[in-house]
Amino acid sequence: MGLLKYTARRLVFLAFLVIGVSLVVFVISHSVPSDPVLANLSQRNIDNQEMVDSFKAKWGLDKPMYTQYFIYVGNLVKGDMGTSIRTQRPVMDDLKKYFPATIELAIFSIIIAVFFGMLFGIISAIKRNSAIDQIIRGISVVGVSVPSFWLGLMFLLLFYVNLGIAPGPGRISPYLAPPVAVTNLYVIDALLAGDWSLAVDALQHLLLPGLVLGSFTMGLITRTTRSSLLEVMSLDFIRTARAKGLTEKMIIMRHALGNALIPVVTVIGIGFGNLLGGMVLVETIFAWPGIGQYAYKAAGNLDFPAIIGVSILISINYVVINLIVDLLYGILDPRVRYN
Amino acid sequence: MSDDLLDKDLLRISNLNVQFRTSEGVFKAVRDVSISIRSGETLGIVGESGSGKSVTALSIMNLIPNPPGEIKGDIFFNGQNLREMSLEEVRKVRGNEISMIFQEPMTSLNPIHTCGKQIMEPLLLHKGFTKHEAKARTIELLKMVGIPLPEQRFKEYPHQLSGGMRQRIMIAMALACRPKLLLADEPTTALDVTIQAQILELMKNLRNEIDSAIIMITHDLGIITEMCHSVAVMYAGQVVESSPLKELIREPLHPYTEGLLRSIPTITKEKQRLYTIDGTVPSPFNMPPGCSFQPRCKYSNAICSEQTPDLIHVSEERAVRCWRHAENIGIGNRSVLHG
Hints:
The complex is a heterodimer.
Chain A (H helix, E strand, L loop, with lengths): L1 H30 L4 H5 L2 H5 L1 H11 L5 H13 L13 H36 L4 H15 L2 H15 L23 H7 L3 H38 L2 H8 L4 H30 L1 H7 L5 H10 L3 H29 L1 H5 L1
Helix pairs in contact in A: 1-15, 6-7, 6-10, 6-12, 7-10, 8-10, 9-10, 10-12, 11-12, 12-15, 13-14, 14-15
Chain B lengths: L2 H6 E14 L2 E14 L3 E5 L6 H8 L8 E9 L2 E2 L5 H7 L4 E4 L13 H12 L4 H14 L5 H5 L8 H13 L5 E5 L7 H18 L2 E6 L2 H7 L2 E6 L2 E7 H6 L4 H8 L49 E2 L5 E2 L2 H6 L11
Parallel strand pairs in B: 3-8, 3-9, 6-7, 7-8
Antiparallel strand pairs in B: 1-2, 1-4, 4-5, 9-10, 10-12, 11-12
């Protein structure tokens, strides 16, 4: 019961957060010293005062800022996020269209990051100060510190242009038709349709952007797993486990890892949130038709409804991921569960 | 001592030396310690913090982390030298034939596993019990250590129990496989006085029930008089006196033992300042020449600061590391008996 109540409370809080985020983004985007009229109309139309006035009237830009905001929030409560100035389509429809591509890439990246991050972290902790530890620590530092746009360009140059072993940008090869939309995650949809070669093609396209996007999180997870595991291994109950006669492997698997995972889960949560936020550059480089590219173009055009829409979507994701992390704590740590 | 006598010893430690290599230098935690214990006996090891009591106990279980720890010397258990065994063989002894109760009941149990699971672990590991059998035996053990509602406690996590209850869990875990030797490292130090008494009473009853030998490590002479048959007094990593309990209380031989006994508060004497031993334990990195206790000793004379005394057997059961007794029995510094 406690758990349901807790989840419900957090979801109610989410509603307030959406309003708060919309306000902050609204104010910031309207404070940018740039003019949406200039960003969206051609030079000839800008010179025509009538055109400018009608553009402003159409998008409500002639009204005072607070009025604009109240109109926006009024519509938001009804589930209407407005119409994108750039695409001329409802923002909600745009988000629905682009978000699955982003989610597919994010999930793929986080799987890579978690799997390799934890694996490397565990190896590194067990083989502490060995050559392999040094190599892994080197990789994780590079992963954390190399900017993703550089890594993305280098990967494309090396694996696609020079070696030719990775597919180019996009979600699938240009000569293939997308699978029948069910979840809009291409790999899953292709599998549902029984089209193996399409699923493999989609997976191959995920590989480079997934690696680039996941490199930061993977480095972070590696480092956290290593330090957390080393810390846990020095605790009293590990000595108790040794005194029982357990082997080192049993001690790590049964006693150390479960405890060491608690801070790692936090990092995974943060990392996943960052992935969604940090999509902009990677999606642009890899021509990935997701929310990152959408946000990039919206920002370039001062497309206010789209900018606020993307911001709200990403903040909702953060909250949902944090909620999942909090619920995971309860599973991993009985002390949290009972408190 | 004849071989015949030696064979009756359940545990015989001879010339144990344990040192830690640290950045500040080599720290000799245990120096030339030789002790022995027979089945059914309780040996008390008493000394202040840093005297090497716990390190001695941990060495028996081979639980000293290496590096930085290095163990030298022989530890015969049941006629077999634990120091010559492989780690795999030592693991079969740990938690099975020798088990240990630690000082910190709050941190010595794994917070993410239930108490029942942790007690069952050595039974499953060493005795080949099925889960069902192990659970039945665990419930039995919980009853034996006086835990009310054992079926319920079985499912609970350590943080749900008080310190006294957790120490009972530790004791139940240590006794699970009916060990021949139980190492109790300050089992009551972290507990309230009333709980201390209960735990000591429990250990006394259990000793009679399971007929194990117990090594009781403590800085509390009260516990020693309550529990032990014989005593080894440790100071600065060395055994300075070993003796049956009654003789030690009646006539302490080493000036340090004498000081310890005099500093016990009593309620029969008139109110007066508690006796203290002047000075502090020497730094392990900077041991005084000759006898380690000499800077604090009121009987100290020239030879004490020049030569280190050996452990001298003054009778079959008593030994002391002090020049006064070497002279008393006419040994001088030329040919001392080794312990």
